[in-house]
Prior knowledge:
Layout: H1 10-17, E1 29-31, E2 37-39, H2 40-52, E3 72-73, H3 75-87, H4 89-95, E4 141-146, E5 150-153, E6 158-161, E7 174-177, E8 188-197, E9 205-209, H5 213-216, H6 222-229, E10 231-233, E11 238-241, E12 245-248, E13 261-266, E14 272-276, E15 279-284, E16 299-303, E17 308-313
Antiparallel strand pairs: 1-2, 1-3, 4-7, 5-6, 6-17, 7-16, 8-13, 8-17, 9-10, 9-16, 10-11, 11-12, 13-14, 14-15
Amino acid sequence: MGTPADDLDDDLLLDGMLCPISQLIMRDPVCTVDGHSYERSAIEAWFRNQEVAGLRHSSPMTGETLPTSTLIPNITLKRVIDDFLDKTPEVAQQLGTAASAPPLYMHNALSSAVSGHRTSVGYPDLARQSNSLYDMRSLSFAEEPRGKLIELEDHKKTARKCGISVLNDWLESIVFCSFPLSINGYNRSVEYEIKKTVTGWGGIHIGVTPDDPKILVKSSNLNTHLEEHSWWVDSDGWLHVPDEGASLCGWTSGDLKAGDLVAITCPEDGTLCVYVNGRRKVQGREARIPSGKRSKPLYGFIALTGNVTEVALVEGSLARDYH
């Protein structure tokens, strides 16, 4: 009998079987000339995006320029994955015949952004990007670390506040995205839908961090770590920048209401931007988030510190254009 999906070794899957770009189990793994393995369709889409942008082919893992875009089938890895799927029929059944289907243990449904959540708030048409790597992403909130007052629902795509912090500690209501929103300087976004609010003060903290949540859980002082390594806008409208303190950005989240779409994006110029229903509310040029070869993957986080009590990740938000 196959190992139950919930008991799988997450680190083994993430390190060995998931494509670094799509974060999905690879069915046709290939190696680039620098030795890293990817799902063929994902790395081909990565190269196509670079060609369209007039950029040289570079490694999604290191940002270094590749001398050639040659792809070599990783036969050994494919055998390992095929053997794993043979021994875990519940995962194989979830994958079906689609190479881009997500692994069962992640409890994620593949994004239907292209045909579903579309231009109701004035976003550009997504169909023209349907072949891009962005459409392959699926998102969930990380299992750990998360605030003591947060419960995860809907296959870890919805975060709900289940209490009030006696100590007024915003870290008790924080939750991190499990997958990075930015790789090597590309303009990526993560978007949340405000599901429920109550009468009260304040709204949310929203930001990005370069540290994997699995690493953050080991931090002895998460608050200090975020202050020194992360960029975020707090519920009072202050933009926090590592080593530079905070500056007032002119937007507060206390007036958010159910149904609002809140996105945070990091363009290549290092700016931290926040959008509400497609309208830019924050343009933090002083953030100076490293981009290009100096960049690292960025993970989104949100804290339900005030009157916002429930948020959900929006599928396919990485495919949107924000200007």
